[in-house]
Design goal:
Shape: globular
Largest sheet: 5 strands, antiparallel
Strand order of the largest sheet: 5-4-7-2-9
Strand content: 35-45%
CATH topology of the largest domain: Jelly Rolls
Number of domains: 2
Order of helices and strands: EEEEEEEEEHHH
Number of helices: 3
Radius of gyration: 16 Å
């Protein structure tokens, strides 16, 4: 389990847990939450204090504070070793070839360099 404290506009960036389903209980505030299914369909909703949302195991998901103040939530995962992989950092901070990223995302070399600079060690 983890307590998540969000500043106004705070974000848990898109990530996955390859070995666990996550359930999120909102204690305070409003969060835009969502996940992307295996057929690339976005399921997103705003959850408020007292609401619960489930992120299926292994699917890309995120949380964003869309309220007018702070937000607090409790996340529980059904594994003591859920794993976590932040997608942007994995793609642009891991050393994947610029050519691969340019072709995969239809980006220019300059755009890839700019994005990669945000994830440099």
């Amino acid at each position: 389990m983890a307590r998540l404290d969000f500043a106004q506009g705070g974000l848990v960036p898109p990530h996955t847990h390859p070995r666990a389903t996550e359930i999120l209980f909102v204690l305070e505030g409003s969060l835009l939450v969502g996940f992307v299914s295996t057929d690339n369909k976005l399921f997103a909703v705003t959850v408020n204090a007292g609401d619960v949302f489930v992120f299926p195991r292994g699917l890309l998901h995120f949380e964003l504070n869309v309220g007018k103040g702070k937000a607090t939530a409790i996340a529980a995962l059904n594994s003591q070793n859920p794993g976590v992989q932040a997608q942007a950092a994995a793609l642009f901070g891991s050393g994947i070839s610029d050519v691969v990223l340019e072709k995969a995302f239809g980006l220019s070399e300059k755009a890839v360099d700019h994005i990669k600079s945000k994830f440099a060690a």
